[in-house]
Amino acid sequence: MDKSAYHLWDLHRILFGNAPAEFLIEILFRTAVTYFFLLVIVAWLGKRMSGKVTITELAVVIMLGAIVAPPMETPERGIVQGVVILTLVLFMHRTVTSISLYPKAQKIIQGRLDICIKDGVVDIGVIRRIRISRAQLFSVLRLNRVYNLGQVERLYIEANGKFSIFLAEHHRPGLSVLPDGDKQVHDIQQHPDPSLQACTSCGTTVDPARAKQPCPHCGNTSWDNAVL
Question: For the chain, which end, N or C, has fewer CB atoms within 10 Å of the first or last residue's CB respectively?
Fold first, then answer.
């Protein structure tokens, strides 16, 4: 914009931009047409777009937001350009989805499943790599009414970021996942073997003699009573 043509209190520019006021009527038509084609494209993308999205689907959602705005709001941009770009995104998404059917390509494009907890023990290396804290894991467990790590056979984080929990057939004593500051809640937990210790970092359980040494799984030196 030419600086000399800029005025701070230019209400016409602030409200309508540089286009004439009549362009608002054109915007109604542009919006209706773009919205219709957007609905068609999203329907063709598949049912997954209305549920938990994958990495590629999230990328498509972000692109759709960027694509539909200019054809609706910019006088210099025609509707056909937006429709062509939307169709191209649909084609690209279908192509990527087809390539993702191959296992190696799927890991690269969609990500992979990771095991965060195995046999009641947190894999510290995995949660560091995927940048998830123990507090987040414990919160997920509590929301699923799991109160100690000994109950967990496996906890997976799926490629789409969703957690899957599989409980052990026979619950074992393990590290409590209840908040440290709520002592009353901790009182409801049982101590089947008062001498059994659990690593406060990963949940590995050992006898008292080994609890005087660093955790064999993660090297942590802090221990707590294992609970059931």
Answer: N
